């Protein structure tokens, strides 16, 4: 785990969240929460460029690249983080790009259930050239999505969800604080019923109301560090650690 004294965000942040309360008339117990994906990058990329999942449920990530882009795994022998390609120059003839891609994992299709996802980021203002996509499954105009990104204007953390339906609407919450100060920040998104909340370093930094029936389910893979390989796209250009998703 990168940075001394840090605890896995997926465990720590649960402690500061409000408890789920069932209606008095119900005797059913809430479903147990389970981490369905976790990537610490501590082993780097092994076995034909694959990054191991540490949850025991998720699929390994594959390093994908274009124009000789690379993801570097820096740090100590047992404590690494991922470093993504630098932003491209405006008139660059070649633009190195890279991202990490998982699979279409049903555990990452939460429907309308309680779902949390997050990562530790370290990025500078100069590295946020567009909306920097940290992690996502699905795209806004293709049958639902959940996403964590850093906004282009003020470098605030954004949590985004789009529900299934013929006319999808983008629901987005921005953190009240920016995160592009070249320091590590733990960011978590939480969809709980009719609320979408963004947490920065364990504190609620913003929330919006969404339809309680909003359902997220698609057949696209998990992608970390960017949505696609367009020459000018919402790639993430900073450092990344402890990427995870938790269901329930």
Unreliable spans are 4-27
CATH class group = Mainly Beta
Distance between the termini: 24 Å
Main sheet: strands, sense, barrel: 8 strands, antiparallel
Q: What structural keywords apply?
A:
single chain, mainly beta, 248 residues, eight-stranded antiparallel β-sheet, 1 helix, Jelly Rolls, 16 strands
Describe it.
The protein contains one helix and 16 strands. The chain has 248 residues and is an all-beta fold. The protein has one domain (33-88, 96-247): Jelly Rolls, CATH 2.60.120. Strands 1, 4, 5, 7, 12, 13, 14 and 16 form an eight-stranded antiparallel sheet that branches. It has an eight-stranded antiparallel sheet with strand order 2-3-6-15-8-9-10-11, with no helix packed on it. The two termini are 24 Å apart. Mean pLDDT is 87; it is low at 4-27.
What's this, in brief?
This protein is mainly beta. It has one domain: Jelly Rolls, CATH 2.60.120.200.
Which helices and strands, and how do they pair?
Layout: H1 9-12, E1 34-39, E2 50-51, E3 61-66, E4 72-75, E5 80-83, E6 97-101, E7 115-122, E8 132-139, E9 142-150, E10 156-162, E11 170-178, E12 185-192, E13 195-200, E14 203-209, E15 222-224, E16 239-247
Antiparallel strand pairs: 1-16, 2-3, 3-6, 4-5, 5-16, 6-15, 7-12, 7-16, 8-9, 8-15, 9-10, 10-11, 12-13, 13-14
């Amino acid at each position: 785990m990168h940075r001394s004294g840090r605890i896995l965000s997926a465990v720590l942040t649960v402690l500061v969240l409000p408890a789920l309360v069932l209606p008095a008339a119900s005797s059913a117990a809430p479903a147990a929460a389970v981490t369905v994906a976790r990537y610490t990058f501590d082993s780097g990329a092994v076995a034909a460029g694959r990054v191991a999942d540490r949850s025991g449920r998720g699929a390994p990530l594959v390093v994908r690249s274009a124009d000789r882009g690379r993801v570097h795994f820096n740090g100590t022998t047992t404590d690494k983080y991922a470093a993504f390609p630098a932003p491209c120059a405006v008139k660059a003839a070649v633009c190195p790009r890279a991202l990490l891609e998982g699979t279409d994992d049903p555990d990452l299709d939460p429907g309308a259930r309680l779902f949390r996802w997050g990562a530790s980021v370290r990025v500078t203002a100069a590295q946020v050239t567009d909306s920097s996509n940290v992690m996502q499954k699905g795209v806004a105009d293709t049958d639902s999505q959940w996403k964590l990104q850093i906004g282009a204007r003020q470098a605030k953390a954004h949590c985004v969800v789009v529900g299934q339906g013929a006319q999808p609407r983008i629901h987005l919450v921005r953190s009240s604080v920016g995160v592009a100060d070249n320091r590590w920040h733990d960011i978590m998104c939480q969809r709980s019923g009719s609320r979408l909340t963004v947490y920065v370093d364990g504190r609620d930094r913003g929330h919006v109301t969404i339809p309680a029936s909003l359902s997220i389910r698609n057949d696209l893979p998990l992608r970390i560090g960017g949505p696609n390989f367009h020459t000018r796209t919402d790639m993430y250009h900073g450092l990344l650690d402890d990427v995870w998703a938790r269901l329930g």
